[in-house]
Design a protein that fits this description.
This protein is α/β, with parallel strands linked by helices. 37% of the residues lie in helices and 26% in strands. An 8-stranded mixed β-sheet has the order 3-6-2-1-9-11-12-10, with helices on both faces. It has a 4-stranded antiparallel β-sheet with strand order 13-18-20-19.
């Protein structure tokens, strides 16, 4: 069996944890498996490297930052190889250049183009445990690029896809995917299985969306589990397979406080009004989420939508610069908001899910500002001051619908 494992920064944060992970890898290898391991930089190494760069040059080029940051993962794989050697097992550490991990040229946020498998298979055939530095690629000029924060998950999934691995384990400091964050929601339950689509909608911190999207595209079976214990984790797979375990109504909930609402009042209500607004934002690479268009009178309409807080100023500037073209009267914004969502592939066949969510908010005197729905997700926009109360109330309302 060929297994790809990925260990995050907290899992290899110090010598004790490196040795612990080395023993876990050794156990999998001694069970007769071929093992490829992707590692993140230790603990806060990436943040410390960024701090050092800022001390030298606050305006350092992205190319040189990539050269610097990539050393964090290279330290991890070299140290892990040493720990595995100390257990008497063969292992080799490799970086992006050595395995031919080709990427686009955007420093700091490169995309994966292709991965050569020859060197990896050669080392596996020699009996080596193959340790690969995550987070990095090499562009057409031979320069190191990085793939964005959290991209070691993406590295691992991409490797599992091209190698045809039996499965990919994402080993982290949590023991699976929960219906909500168990640190803040008493009674949150660990899920045995979850579909790729549900995982993407949950906005979970345990797996970057880019990795989940790639796993879905290439049908990579994922397991999210703890690197600290031997407890079974959460399996991420296609919905049809996930439903074999239990037909869920609601798989979980998510909270997003990185949201700003922008409202445009008094736009002439004519064909193309919404198109003109969102085409302008698209040209500025500003993504929008919840959208509501509400005619206020026969010839006039209001349009409200949400963006990430970091895009708020850019969106407002763009809209104000085109006020005459868009022909609106007033532009307002609100940053003190949060998006609360419930997610579940079974919701389309479960009458009353939406009303139960709205009832939980009503019972706690929480007003809903906007509503957005899809086949597997219901999202509401609420005042941020109600976030803690709202997420507990909604989670409690659906506790009996969530997987045991």
């Amino acid at each position: 069996m060929l297994i790809v494992q990925k260990y995050g920064g907290t899992s290899v944060a110090n010598a004790q944890r490196v040795n612990h992970v080395a023993r876990r890898i050794a156990d999998a290898y001694n069970a007769g498996n071929k093992i490829v391991v992707v590692l993140s930089a230790q603990g806060s190494v990436t943040d410390r490297l960024l701090q050092k760069a800022h001390e030298i040059n606050p305006k350092a080029s992205k190319r040189e930052l990539d050269m610097l940051l990539a050393t964090g993962e290279q330290q991890s794989v070299a140290l892990m190889a040493m720990a595995i050697h100390n257990l008497g097992l063969p292992a080799i550490s490799l970086n992006a250049v050595q395995i031919g991990f080709a990427s686009t040229g955007e420093h700091g946020n490169a995309r994966i183009k292709s991965i050569e498998t020859g060197r990896i298979y050669l080392e596996l055939d020699k009996g080596n445990i193959v340790l690969i530095a995550g987070f990095q690629g090499v562009n057409s000029q031979g320069d190191i690029t990085t793939l964005g924060r959290g991209a070691s998950d993406t590295t691992a999934v991409a490797l599992a896809a091209v190698l045809g691995a039996n499965y990919c384990e994402i080993c982290t400091d949590v023991d699976g995917v929960y219906t909500a964050d168990p640190r803040v929601i008493p009674g949150a339950k660990k899920l045995q299985t979850i579909s790729y689509d549900e995982m993407l909608e949950m906005s979970c911190q345990v797996l970057v969306n880019r990795a989940a999207q790639m796993a879905k595209k290439h049908n990579v079976r994922l397991i999210i589990r703890s690197s600290m214990t031997d407890e079974p984790g959460t399996v991420i797979c296609h919905q049809k397979e996930a439903s074999k375990v239990e037909d869920l109504y609601v798989s979980g909930m998510s909270i997003d406080r990185d949201v700003a609402q922008i409202s445009i009042q008094g736009i002439t209500n004519s064909p193309g009004a919404a198109y003109r607004v969102f085409a302008l934002l698209a040209r500025e690479n500003i993504s929008v989420d919840i959208i509501l268009q509400a005619p206020t009178q026969a010839a006039v309409t209001d349009i409200s939508f949400t963006v990430a807080k970091q895009d708020r100023d850019g969106a407002i500037s763009t809209l104000e610069a085109n006020k005459e073209t868009l022909a609106y009267t007033t532009l307002t914004h609100n940053d003190n908001l949060a998006k609360l969502a419930i997610v579940g592939a079974g919701m389309t066949t479960a009458p009353g899910v939406a009303s139960a969510m709205f009832e939980a908010l009503y019972e706690n005197n929480i007003n809903i500002k906007l509503i957005s729905t899809s086949e597997i997700k219901i999202t509401v926009l609420i005042d941020d001051k109600h976030t803690e109360k709202a997420k507990q109330a909604v989670h409690d309302k659906f506790a009996n619908m969530m997987q045991e």
